[in-house]
Request: fold
Amino acid sequence: MQLVNGFTLMDYAEKNHLVLPAFNTTNYELTAGIIKGFEEAGLGGYIAISSSNLKLSSPKIIADMVKSVMKDISTPVALHLDHGKSFEDVKACIEAGFTSIMVDASHLPFEENIKEVKRTVEYCHFYGIPVEAELGAIQGKEDDHISNEDAKTDPNDVLEFVQRTGCDMLAVSIGNVHGMDLAPNLDFPLLQKIAELSPVPIVLHGGSGIPFDQVRKAKASNLIKVNYGSDLRQAFIRTFGEAYESDHNEFDIMSLSKKAINNVEARVEAIIKEVNNH
Ligand code: G3H
Ligand code: ZN
Reply:
């Protein structure tokens, strides 16, 4: 199957009453595990890569790899830029064939956040690609980005932000955290208030560590997408770590890579099914 356009994927989620998981990749093994996991679960979603992770490779390398691995599957998957940190990254990803974009200007003051998102939306919509934007700041560690700021999304800003930016999905800060070091503590009344005010569906970052029943509960608040990064990275790293721990002379990178793919695939399949009670 070819990569699916982000708007098409959003329609698919709405029609089928699904929450779409977005899984962050870094390399071939994570990519293969993620795509196989989607196929095994029989449901669609996002494969994503963050701006900071793109420093390791490039939008084109990632897009070519994902497209090539996607050939063997039949479930709809969009390729998403996660936490897009610059307009240059956004343009490079669109050019490489990404089908969904996030611009993260949440660290900027309100008016500057709006300005940055608005110009990204104008650019991406010209190419028929949807844009996710973030309002409020999410605490924790995301790749090489560490945020100590815990600024929950202010519901009073939501409608104005979405209307003035034209964004298609809204990432919120409601006690969700990035990484495994902090414990999430979701504020459901706040989420519900935001959802009632937002004309677009909601995105939850920091999926790793959020109990699945809470993700399912958030679905009632127009949740369309939930992001997973650390969970899969641990499944990948653990494979090599355990092999090294049991034998310091271990050097069979090929069979360990295959094992890592299988371990990532199993996590992806389990997460997709848990999130959607499938
Ligand atoms: O954007 C990516 C996610 O928010 C990943 O968060 O590593 O806590 O699952 P996580
Ligand atoms: Zn995130």
About this structure: The CA atoms of residues 74 and 209 lie 29 Å apart.
